[in-house]
Amino acid sequence: MKNNYYYKQFFELGQQYINFNLYEIGLPENDPVYTVKKVMEELNFEKLLSMYEQRGRKAFNPIMMFSLITYANMYGIRSIDRIVERCRRDIGFMWLAQGKKPKRDAFYNFINNKASKPILDDLHYQFMSKLKKEGLIGLETLFIDGTKIEANANRYTFVWRGTVNYHLVKLLKQLHTLFQEYNELIKSNQYDIKYGLLKEDMFIIDGTERVTKVILENKERKRLNRKKLSNNTRLKIDNIGPQTIMRIKQLLLKVSELEGVEFSLGKGCRKSDLQKLYEGFSKCGKKLIKYKENFDIMGDDRNSYSKTDKDATFMRMKDDHMMNGQLKPAYNLQLGVENYIVTDIYLSNDRTDYNTLIPLISKHELMTNVKLKEVTADSGYCSEKNLQFLKDNDIAPYIKLQEHEKKKTRKYHQDI
C-alpha cells in the first residue's frame, strides 16, 4: 500500500508520548475520540493518500486532518478557526492531533485541494458498509427527504433566462439591420465584383418568435396593470452565429486594407461606413457570446444562476423573514436515511424534488452495491417518471400521492 508512512505515523506511533498523561488529566474512557480513532483504523485511505507526493517535505498527516474535522463535526464545530483553537486547548483534539497544532491554512488546503467529493463519498460509503456489517442498517430501505440551503453567494447577482431572452431578441434585431447594411454596402460599392464578396444571410435562432410574442403580450399586460407572463423559452445559440460575425469582421478588415481606408480613433473623428459596420458587428458579437455563455451555464433544467456561484439556482426558501417571497441563491439538498442514519447525500440545483429521486437511488446502488427494495418519500417526489423508474427496478414505492390531502376534504367529494 502506498504512503505507509502516514498509516504508521498515525495508528502505530501516534499518541505515544501523550497517552500516559491522559488519565491524570481526566479524559473519560468512553470519550468519542476513541471511537473516531477506531473507525479510522477500519477505513481505507488509499484514494486520499494518493493525493500526496511521497517525495519532499511531509505535510500534516491527512488521516489526522480528516479525523480532526470528523471529530469537530461530531460536536457541531464547522468553523476552521474554532478547530484550530481546539487543537491547542482541547485534550481530545490534542490527543487526536498527536500534539501537533495545524493552522488554518493547513485545514483549508486539505479541504479545498485534497478532500475532493469522490474521496469523501468513498470514505462515507466505506463507513456505511461497516455499519451494515454491524447490523445497524441494511441499505435495502431508504427514506428520502430534502431541504433547501442558501448558497454562499450574493443575493443580488442573479441572471434570469427571461431577461437574457428579452435582450437577445433586441440584439437579433440590431444584427438584422447590420446584415442589411452590410449587403447594401458591398453592392453599392461593387465589393462583390471587386473582391468576390457574397451576400450574407442573417442566421436564425429557433424559438425567438415565441419570445417576441410573449414580450409584446407583456407590454400590453403592463399597460393594463396585470401580472406579466414568464418568458423562459429554451433558446440555444450554436456556433454558427458567432462564427458568421467573426467572418464578416475579417472581410471588412480585408476590404478596408485593400481600399486604403484607415479606422479613426477617438471622439470627434469621422468614421467610414466600413468602420461603423465593423464596430457594430464587434459590439453585437461580444453580446451574443455573452448570452451564449449565460445559456450554457443555465443548461436546460434551470432558469437562473448567480454570478458569484454559478452552480446555485434562485429558489424560494422556507425561512422567508420578509414575507415577500424573495428568491435566494440556493441548493436542493437530498438526504437518504435509514434507522436514523444518513446513508446518502445528493446535492442538486433543481428547484423541485421531482428530478432528484432517480439520481439519489442510482448513486446509492452504485456506491453500496446493494439493490434497493423499498423507498419512502413525500408527495414532492410523486411523478409518473419516478413511479415508472421504481416499477422498472422492482422497488416498492411508499410515496404519498399529490392529491392525497385534497381527496380527504369535503369540497373534493362535493365537486365529484
TrEMBL record:
EC number: 2.4.2.9
Family matches, as InterPro entries: Transposase_11, Transposase_InsH_N
Domain of life: Bacteria
Pfam families per the UniProt record, alphabetical: DDE_Tnp_1, DUF772
GO MF: DNA binding; transposase activity; uracil phosphoribosyltransferase activity
Residue ranges of domain Transposase IS4-like in the record: 305-411
Any one of the GO BP annotations: DNA transposition
UniProt keywords, alphabetically: Glycosyltransferase, Transferase
Transposase InsH N-terminal domain residues: 27-112
UniProt xrefs under PANTHER family: TRANSPOSASE, TRANSPOSASE DDE DOMAIN-CONTAINING PROTEIN
Identification of the protein by name: Uracil phosphoribosyltransferase protein
Organism: Haloplasma contractile SSD-17B
